[in-house]
Each structure stands twice: as structure tokens, then as C-alpha cells.
């Protein structure tokens, strides 16, 4: 099995390890645990994670390992013993470690972690935070000196608190659980990023969500349980659709997603049976997921980038659950209690004459519209634009947010009446500036995804459905299908069938087909009258993965196409010949999966760099016909799937997008 470096330690750990919750009487007990651990060693697993809080796991593991001389990396934890538990009683903590050593049959613990160090209202481990201090840290240093432990770590489930503890630089390893998996990504740019910077080994707990990602609950999700937010509900239904399309088990998909992140050192798995173990090993031996499935999971995760406040940590599918328990105190929300903050600040001021100025500044700050990213242009270009993606926001030329909506938008336009038409999840919606949905069309049950959403001059709305029955539709104001065009994407992979379709002035439809490497022009009866091929040899052939994403018929009859994986934008003439192209060689590497785009009145082209993760590179950029970059938009987290530029320096733009 693949092994990976465990951060700053001198340990190399197998990419899969054994999680201790089910190496206990909660599952098969000592005899089954012995069989599982022996087989795990044979398969290349060299690490076990346990804890006093995991029932009798330490004792079960210790008994199961008797006579097994494999060089295993053993992790256990401080916490939960003795009862009543006091995390500031250093003598009790010392006794707990001695008990762990006895139960495990070890003279030394490889990694000792603080369990749940990130919930100070539950376990007040720390006596100070700057610098971090407390009896647990003192004891760990003592135990290292005595040779009873080798490295020290943290094991928690929050994001902000854990990130702060990681940044203290007092630990060698961090275990983060329930906040990074196929659907949840809160830890990616927080705990995991901080751990990588400090060179901590990263252990990923609950990659399967303790079962809620692997046990199908289709009917329960459709029934809308009270604890499940609508956004999470839509996400899980889309996730189940992806599982059906991918043709693999949920466990395989989740594990292969996790091993695809090279920053993760090891993934503890809870194995109740030998079959669980062998299936998990077989999954990771297949390697990371294909790129198209990873991209699809990224889209699903972006539908709900942060957990709803009332959502349980472990989603309780199949269980009776009616909401949160006893509330705990939290600091007041500053935006909701700025009066309180104002009084606090003024009470501390030593120069009363400055009070009116402070009040004025605070009022201005409290009432000002938030800024969204930044625009840069040496030639003074300013745009107002709608950016569609995980965050769908209307940004003014002043950089302020004029409107925003929740949910992942694949396509979006600002309409003439000021409303926004967007394809969000699997619903096309017209949304007012106040957030009211005044028109909608929902994906047909037979299909998997809804992509395009365009309001036509005749008042109909153009949508495209992908799946078993790929089709382009014109939907009337009252929700009836006025036109249905069957599409021929040349693949059964619903997600990869089509992207942004547009209606042409001649009444035909321009439709990009990714895996066919074609932009087809369809008549309303479904006849293909013209095709533009994007796998031309001069563009790098098929190996360049020039998947057509957005195709725009220009006023001169040419067709502008963004080629997403090929990282280029190409203009084709009526015969399908390349007459203009721009790629990373021309623009200093700014392309990263170009999705949406728009041709401006100036002849310049605005391009979405959807997969751009480098904070020094733009998410949107504007290039001239002679391939000079004249405008850029930067944002640390936004992802641009589509864009609708509304104005340039106060002048209205058209809709060539």
C-alpha cells in the first residue's frame, strides 16, 4: 500500500489506517479485531487510531495485537478518562496515559492527541491561548522526555477553533473530522491549509461521514426531514444521481476522493468486518478519482460551502431527530449588535472630542455595501457584472455587492426587468432583487442535470437537460414546453453531455458537446445542420482535451468557443477553421478551465477561469484581439462558472455570452 510522510515526524504512514471506534466491543470484539488487524497488516496498513472515548477500543486493540510484531504506528488520546473528567487535572491525565500504555501493551505511544481540544465550553483544556498553554501541553512535554510518547497532536471536529490551535505550532499531527469529504470542504482552506503550512501530519477522520455518505437515503431525503436544509437536500439528491452515473459504490467514491488530496497523510477507516477492510483497500488501490468526477464533486460541495447552523455534525439519516439540544453561550453578532459595540468602544476612548468622528465612521462602516473582490486595469477599465458559480453575485463598477443569491449557479443572466435568471441546482429560476422567485422550471425526473438558462426574445426560457434523455427545451411563462429538441451528445455520461446552449437569430440552436469535441447547430426538429470540431490537430488533437464549454455566435458569423480542459479560447469561421485563438502562452498562464465568457462591444473577450486556485491569478480576465490582458478580477474564493458583463465604464454591454 502507498505510504505517505506524516508531516514533521519521521514516520511514514499507510494511506489507509484502522480507526479504533469499531475495533472494540461495539463491533466484533477481540477475536474479529485480531482477524481484521492481521489482514490489514498483510495488505500494507501500518497505523491504528484509538482513544479512551472509543468504548473498550484500547483494550481490544491491545489484546488483538498480542503476538503481532509488525511495526505499527499507534495513536491514542487524552480525554474521557478518568470520570468525572477534568482536562486541567495533570495527575489524572498522567494516569490516563499510563492506563493507555497498559491496555495497549506498549512501552511507548507513537502519537498522543488531545481529544476535542476545540470545544472550550465542553472541555476547557487551555489556560491561555496566546501563547497556548495548559496542563495537557505540560504533560506531553514531560512524557516525551520520559520516552512514553514520541509525538503530540490534536483531534477535533471544528474549523475555526482547530485552525487557531494548529497555528499555535505546538503539535506535530492533526486529526480533522466531519469537515472534509466528498461533499463537505470547510477544512480545506482552514485546518488543512494551516496544517500544511506548519508541516503537521494530517489525519482525515470520517471520510465516509460515519456512514451518512455511504448509506443511501433517497426516500428520506425526498420526504424533507425537518433537520435537513433545502440546500443540503438538493445536494444529496444530486450526489445520489452522481453515484448512479459513476457506477461505483459510495464508499469507493469517498475514499478515492480523499486519497486524491496529497496533503492528507492517512485516512482511518472503521472496519466492522473483514469485507469492509478489503473493499476499502481495493478502492484506494484504484487511485484518485477521474478528473470529471472530481469536478462534479467540487460542484456539489460548492452548493453548500458552509454547514447550516442547526445541522447535526453526523447527519441522522434513518434516526428520529428533532433539532438541537441545550444552547451554549456565544459572543453577540457584531453586525446585529453594533450599538453595543459602539458603546463599548466609546467607553474606552481617552479623547471624548473624537466621539462624533468615531460614531460617523462606525455608521458609515455599518451601512456600507460589502466589497466583492477587486478589479485591476492599467487602462482604467471598470465593469459591472454578474458572476455565476458557487457564489452568484452582482458586482457594481465600484466593486460593491449589488445583489447575491444562494446556491450553485451554472448559468445566469441579468434580465431587462432587473431580475436574474439562473440555473441553480436543477431548477431554472427568475429571482427578483428582493430574492423572490417569480418563475421556475424544474428538471424532469428522468434526467440528471439542468444546465443552460436563457430568456429568449419571444418570452420563452431556453433550458438544457442532461441525462438519459438529453434535450433542449423552450419553456413558456406558464411552464409549458413549447419546443423540444433531442440532442446527440455522443456519450451517456450525463454530466459531460452538454454545456451552455444558445439560440441563434435564424431560429436554430448552438450546443457544445464536450466529449464529442463538437459544437453542433441544431434545427428545432433535431437535425444537425453544421458542426465545429474542437479536436483539430492544430489545436492539439483530442489529447489536448479541448472540451467546448461556451459557444457564442458573433455578429460577423464566426463562433467564439471556450475550450475548458484545453485552456484556450478559439474563434472559428463559418467553415470551422481557426481564425483566432488565445491560450496560456499568450496571457501568462491565466487560463484554468475556461468556462463562461463574453465578447464585449469593444471586441475584447472576457473569460472565466473557473478552476483558478492561485490567489495571484484572476478569476476573470479581459483580453484584446491582439491578446493583451487589459482587465482582471481577483477574489480569494469565488469561482467563475459563467459571467454576464453589464457595463463598461458606465456604458451598457450586449448579451454576446
Your description of this structure?
With 657 residues, the protein is an alpha+beta fold. It has three domains: 3-302, TIM Barrel (Alpha-Beta Barrel); 338-367, no CATH class; 374-652, Methylamine Dehydrogenase, Chain H (7 Propeller). It is 23% helix and 29% strand. The chain contains 14 helices and 38 strands. Strands 11-10-9-6-5-4-3-12 form an eight-stranded parallel β-sheet, covered by helices on one side. Strand 21 and strand 22 form a beta hairpin. Helix 1 (29-42) crosses helix 2 (57-64) and helix 2 (57-64) runs parallel beside helix 3 (90-104). It is elongated. The protein starts with a strand and ends in a 5-residue tail after the last strand. The relative contact order is 0.07.
Topology:
Layout: E1 3-5, E2 12-14, E3 16-19, H1 29-42, E4 47-49, H2 57-64, E5 73-78, H3 90-104, E6 109-115, E7 128-129, E8 132-133, H4 135-146, E9 149-156, H5 160-167, E10 173-177, H6 188-198, E11 201-205, H7 218-222, H8 230-246, H9 250-259, E12 267-269, H10 274-285, H11 291-302, H12 338-347, H13 355-367, E13 374-376, E14 383-388, E15 392-395, E16 401-405, E17 409-414, E18 420-424, E19 427-431, E20 437-442, E21 447-455, E22 461-467, E23 471-475, E24 481-486, E25 502-503, E26 509-513, E27 518-522, E28 528-533, E29 548-553, E30 559-563, E31 568-572, E32 578-583, H14 584-587, E33 594-599, E34 605-609, E35 620-623, E36 629-634, E37 642-648, E38 651-652
Parallel strand pairs: 3-4, 3-12, 4-5, 5-6, 6-9, 9-10, 10-11
Antiparallel strand pairs: 1-2, 7-8, 13-36, 14-15, 14-37, 15-16, 17-18, 18-19, 19-20, 21-22, 22-23, 23-24, 25-26, 26-27, 27-28, 29-30, 30-31, 31-32, 33-34, 34-35, 35-36, 37-38
Amino acid at each position: 500500500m502507498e505510504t505517505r510522510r506524516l508531516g514533521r515526524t519521521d514516520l511514514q504512514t499507510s494511506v489507509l489506517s484502522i480507526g479504533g471506534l469499531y475495533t472494540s466491543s461495539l463491533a466484533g470484539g477481540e477475536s474479529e479485531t485480531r482477524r481484521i488487524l492481521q489482514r490489514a497488516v498483510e495488505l500494507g496498513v501500518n497505523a491504528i487510531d484509538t482513544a479512551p472515548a472509543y468504548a473498550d477500543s484500547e483494550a481490544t486493540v491491545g489484546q488483538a495485537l498480542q503476538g503481532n510484531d509488525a511495526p505499527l504506528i499507534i495513536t491514542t488520546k487524552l480525554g474521557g478518562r478518568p470520570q468525572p473528567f477534568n482536562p486541567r487535572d495533570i495527575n489524572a491525565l498522567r494516569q490516563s496515559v499510563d492506563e493507555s500504555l497498559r491496555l495497549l501493551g506498549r512501552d511507548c505511544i507513537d502519537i498522543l492527541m488531545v481529544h476535542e481540544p476545540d470545544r472550550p465550553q465542553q472541555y476547557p483544556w487551555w489556560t491561555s491561548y496566546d501563547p497556548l498553554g495548559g496542563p495537557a501541553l505540560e504533560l506531553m512535554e514531560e512524557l516525551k522526555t520520559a520516552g512514553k510518547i514520541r509525538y503530540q497532536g490534536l483531534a477535533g471536529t471544528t474549523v475555526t477553533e482547530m485552525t487557531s490551535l494548529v497555528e499555535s505550532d505546538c503539535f506535530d499531527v492533526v486529526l480533522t473530522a466531519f469537515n472534509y469529504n466528498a461533499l463537505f470542504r470547510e477544512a480545506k482552506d482552514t485546518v488543512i491549509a494551516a496544517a500544511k503550512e506548519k508541516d503537521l501530519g494530517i489525519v482525515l477522520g470520517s471520510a465516509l461521514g460515519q456512514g451518512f455518505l455511504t448509506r443511501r437515503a433517497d426516500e428520506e431525503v425526498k420526504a424533507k426531514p425537518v433537520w435537513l436544509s433545502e440546500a443540503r437536500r438538493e445536494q444529496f439528491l444530486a450526489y445520489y444521481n452522481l453515484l448512479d452515473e459513476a457506477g461505483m459504490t459510495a464508499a469507493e467514491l469517498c475514499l478515492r476522493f480523499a486519497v486524491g488530496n496529497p496533503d492528507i497523510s492517512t485516512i482511518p477507516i472503521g472496519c466492522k468486518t473483514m469485507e469492509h477492510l478489503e473493499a476499502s483497500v481495493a478502492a484506494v488501490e484504484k487511485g484518485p478519482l477521474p478528473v470529471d468526477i472530481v469536478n462534479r464533486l467540487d460542484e456539489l460541495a460548492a452548493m453548500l460551502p458552509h454547514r447550516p447552523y442547526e445541522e447535526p455534525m453526523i447527519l441522522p439519516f434513518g434516526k428520529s431527530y428533532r433539532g438541537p439540544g441545550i444552547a451554549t453561550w456565544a459572543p453577540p453578532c457584531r453586525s446585529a449588535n453594533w450599538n453595543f459595540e459602539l458603546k463599548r468602544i466609546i467607553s474606552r476612548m481617552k479623547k471624548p472630542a473624537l466621539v462624533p468622528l468615531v460614531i460617523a465612521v462606525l455608521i458609515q462602516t455599518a451601512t456600507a455595501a460589502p466589497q466583492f473582490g477587486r478589479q485591476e486595469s492599467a487602462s482604467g477599465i471598470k465593469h459591472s457584472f454578474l458572476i455565476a458559480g458557487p457564489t452568484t453575485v452582482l458586482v457594481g463598477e465600484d466593486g460593491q455587492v449589488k445583489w447575491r443569491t444562494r446556491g450553485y449557479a451554472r448559468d445566469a443572466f441579468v434580465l431587462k426587468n432587473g431580475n436574474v435568471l439562473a440555473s441553480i441546482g436543477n431548477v431554472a429560476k427568475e429571482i427578483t432583487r428582493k430574492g423572490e422567485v417569480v418563475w421556475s422550471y424544474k428538471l424532469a425526473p428522468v434526467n440528471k442535470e439542468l444546465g443552460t438558462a436563457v430568456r429568449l426574445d419571444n418570452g420563452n426560457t431556453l433550458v438544457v437537460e442532461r441525462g438519459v434523455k438529453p434535450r433542449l427545451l423552450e419553456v413558456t411563462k406558464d411552464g409549458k414546453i413549447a419546443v423540444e429538441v433531442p440532442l446527440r451528445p455522443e456519450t451517456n455520461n450525463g454530466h459531460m453531455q452538454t454545456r451552455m446552449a444558445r439560440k441563434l437569430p435564424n431560429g436554430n440552436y448552438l450546443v457544445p458537446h464536450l466529449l464529442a469535441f463538437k459544437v453542433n447547430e441544431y434545427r428545432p426538429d433535431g437535425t444537425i445542420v453544421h458542426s465545429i470540431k474542437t479536436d483539430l490537430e492544430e489545436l492539439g488533437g483530442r489529447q489536448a482535451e479541448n472540451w467546448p464549454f461556451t459557444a457564442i455566435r458573433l455578429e460577423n458569423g464566426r463562433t467564439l468557443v471556450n475550450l475548458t480542459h484545453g485552456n484556450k479560447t478559439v474563434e472559428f469561421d463559418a467553415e470551422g477553421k481557426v481564425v483566432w485563438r488565445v491560450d496560456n502562452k499568450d496571457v501568462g498562464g491565466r487560463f484554468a478551465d475556461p468556462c463562461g465568457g463574453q465578447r464585449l462591444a469593444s471586441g475584447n473577450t472576457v473569460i472565466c477561469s473557473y478552476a483558478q486556485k492561485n490567489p495571484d491569478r484572476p478569476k476573470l480576465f479581459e483580453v484584446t484581439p491582439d491578446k493583451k490582458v487589459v482587465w482582471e478580477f481577483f477574489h480569494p474564493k469565488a469561482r467563475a462558472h459563467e459571467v454576464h458583463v453589464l457595463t463598461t465604464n458606465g456604458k451598457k454591454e450586449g448579451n454576446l455570452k
